[in-house]
Amino acid sequence: MVNSFYKNRTFCVVNLGCKLNFAEASTVARQLRGMGFVQVGEGEAADAYVVHTCAVTAQAEKKCRQAIRKLAKQRDGAAICVTGCYARLKSAELEQMPEVSLVADKREVAQKIGEHFALPGSARCLLPAAANDGDDFFSAYSSGNRTRSFLKVQDGCDYRCSYCTVPLARGVSRNIAIDKIVAQAREIAAQGVSEIVLTGVNVGDFGKSTGENFLQLAQQLEAVEGISRYRISSMEPNLLTAELVDFVAGSPKFLPHFHIPLQAGANRILGLMRRRYAREQFAEKLLYIREKMPLAFIGVDVIVGFPTETEEEFESARAFLEELQPAYLHIFPYSMRPNTPAALMPQVPEAQISSRAKRLGALCDALHAEFYRKNTGRTSSVLFESARKNGYMLGFSENYVRVALPYNPELANKIALARMLGAGEDGNMRCEVVK
Ligand code: SF4
Q1: How much is the pTM?
Q2: How does pLDDT run across 96-111, given as a tens digit for each residue?
Q3: pLDDT > 80? residue 133
């Protein structure tokens, strides 16, 4: 409910994490606007800043601290409220930063900011040390961008990969029921958005807490009027079933775009990581997708320099990926996280980690260029975005080719058929609209 007390107060939300954080940060912003606060853009002075943090690597945490210090300089005396995974894992560390006004759970952050203004000097740290126990679910979707919305369908993870702190920060795997998610998709459609990206921590685990499954969710979302396209943000390989691949292959709305974490290309390392598949099973899944959808975009996450990874194991992983030919590699140099089993294993020297990341980066560039070459000359439906950059507008094809077209305001947030003409110097595919 709008409170006139907040009417002239401004706020800004700064998101430093993944698309799941983005959906949550956007939801916190809606809550604050609903209370009467006025949102300002990043870089503008505000009375309150919400910093939605990430803790996936040491570097991510460092960036959060830098952002907090920068915001404090932007507006002297502003309330800086920190939430998200870093806040959940290390609330005491953040609380000790003099720039931080309060540390709060994302479910309570809007309310606590309100209290901060109503009761100056109220508690600074509002986060209990324990991770979420599963009886909560912060429903979230991003809004404000009429091209696409990121819809959170699942949170937390029951896996225990030996390098990962996400389950400590986000708790056990859980979701809300399909009918509630379908209702949110209808809300998104009512805002004129035509594409939804389904996000979560372990999306394929959807349904564990409600006795449903991801395929059922996808089938029911497909029937939502007004939404023309769905993408699945990421899916663990062991949860990517043949039924789901078949469903996507036959769906008019679920797009041929997969993001699958491999993480390591050597079975010994996969075992140490406590991943739930061997590389042979990963290859089978990828080849099955390609059999059903030959030009599907397949992005693969890889961690390089996991403890004890030898040069031979890295090279064998590189050769494995070169043979599989995904369209893109998301490369993560291993980052030691406190309180994980991997932190106790013999570490690979930094210089070797960087060298491996660089070599895999070169392979990624070649794979991406080859994927764009294979798409040149094809026609695909493209959802164009509204921003104008250097005289161009950008969009994504069904299979996630980033296309650029001379700016045409009539196509903003619209889907049109376009022919791919070849990659431009900026790496984006040039295209012409055919319908
Ligand atoms: S599947 Fe593994 S890497 Fe992914 S969030 Fe769960 S524990 Fe972390």
Answers
A1: 0.93
A2: 999 999 999 998 899 8
A3: no
Residue 90's CATH number: 3.40.50.2300
Say what the pLDDT of residue 5 is.
Answer: 67
- Give the tens place of pLDDT for each residue, 260-305: 999 999 999 999 999 999 999 999 999 999 999 999 999 999 999 9
Split at pLDDT 50, 70, 90, the class of 127 is: low
C-alpha–C-alpha distance, residues 237 and 265, integer Å = 13
Share of the chain above pLDDT 90, in %: 85
From ligand 1's centre to the CA of 87, what distance in Å? 19
Distance (angstroms) between ligand 1 centre and the Cα of 286 equals 20
Which residue among 19, 54, 157 is best mutated to probe the pocket of ligand 1, counting the most ligand atoms within 8 A of its Cβ?
157
Q: Find the domain containing 423 and state its range.
A: 379-433
Contact 28/106 with Cβ under 8 angstroms?
A: yes
Q: Which amino acid is at 136?
A: D
Residue 161 CA to ligand 1 center (angstroms) comes to: 6
Ligand 1 centre distance from Cα of residue 417 (Å): 37
Pocket of ligand 1 (CB under 6 A): 157, 159-161, 164, 166-167, 201-202, 236
Q: Whose CA is nearest to atom 1 of ligand 1?
A: 159
Phi, psi of 177 (to 5 degrees): -70, 155
Could you tell me which of 279, 272, 280 has the C-alpha nearest to residue 348?
Answer: 272
Residue 364 has pLDDT above 70, yes or no: yes
Cα of 331 to ligand 1 centre, how many Å?
16
Q: What CA–CA distances, in Å, run from 76 to 63, 70, 115? A: 20, 11, 20
* pLDDT (0 to 100) of residue 125: 57
Is a pLDDT exceeding 60 seen at residue 359?
yes
Q: Give per-residue burial for 284-302: e unless 16+ CB within 10 Å, then b.
A: ebbebbbeebebbbbbbeb
Whole-angstrom Cα distance, residue 348 to residue 139?
39
Residue 167 sits in a domain whose CATH number is: 3.30.750.210
Residues 55, 12 share a domain? yes
CATH number at residue 413: 2.40.50.140
With 70 as the cut, is the pLDDT of residue 4 above it? no
User: Tokens 């939605």, residue?
Assistant: 52
